[in-house]
Amino acid sequence: MKSYQNLDKLFYDLVESAEIEIKKSLSEYSKLYILNLLKKLAKTNDLFTNEFVKEMAIAEIFMEAFHRNLFEKINMLKLAGDLSLILSGLYPESLNKKLVNIDCYIKMGRSSYKELANIYANYSSKLDIMNLYVQLKREFLNLVEILTEIADKLHFINKDNTHNIHVRWQKSGISKYKKILEENKITPLYNNIKNQY
Fold first, then answer.
1. Which sign does the torsion angle of CA 13, 78, 40, 178 carry?
2. Dihedral of the CA atoms 115, 119, 121, 126 (nearest 10)?
3. Most CB atoms within 10 A, among 20, 22, 62, 172?
4. Among 6-15, 39-48, 148-157, which stretch is predicted with the lowest mean pLDDT?
5. Tell me, what DSSP letter sits at residue 188?
6. pLDDT(4) > 70
7. What is the helix (H) or strand (E) element at residue 44, kind and residue range?
8. What gap in Å lies between CA 20 and CA 17, rounded to an integer?
9. Is residue 37 within 8 Å of 109, Cβ to Cβ?
């Protein structure tokens, strides 16, 4: 990998490379969002040290958001969506010992961004923010695929654990997992899971 002085350039190159690899392009909204999320993640650990994350699982944060005031609801839904995106795409190995699989995180992330889009749809002055969350919901699986490509380049994926790779492939349909299985001479069984999203 090249040496980078600038995080913006590094993440932009990684996202662009991943888009080419999976043959999908993100909207400008989604691309800018993922670049900012990666940059924030690299500079601080705020996402994983948030007060809600210390006390609750991501699913609890998502569900609890609906019982909070508007400001807290927005923050909690954004946190649940961002964490679901990062864990399912960039840190899939962290899901190995979880009770739920990657597909649950993908559904929860999309639902979080959908709820945020619905909230902002009620405020005409917030139209751009609403459009952002609509795009994030629509492109969530593409974002996960791009982060999975980046995770592979950064060696965050244990390619030797073909059982987990196969489960992730069946639950998400992410093309990187299919390639890893094929490289290990395993024919992946696919049940058209992408249509569920």
1. negative
2. -120
3. 172
4. 39-48
5. -
6. no
7. none
8. 5
9. no
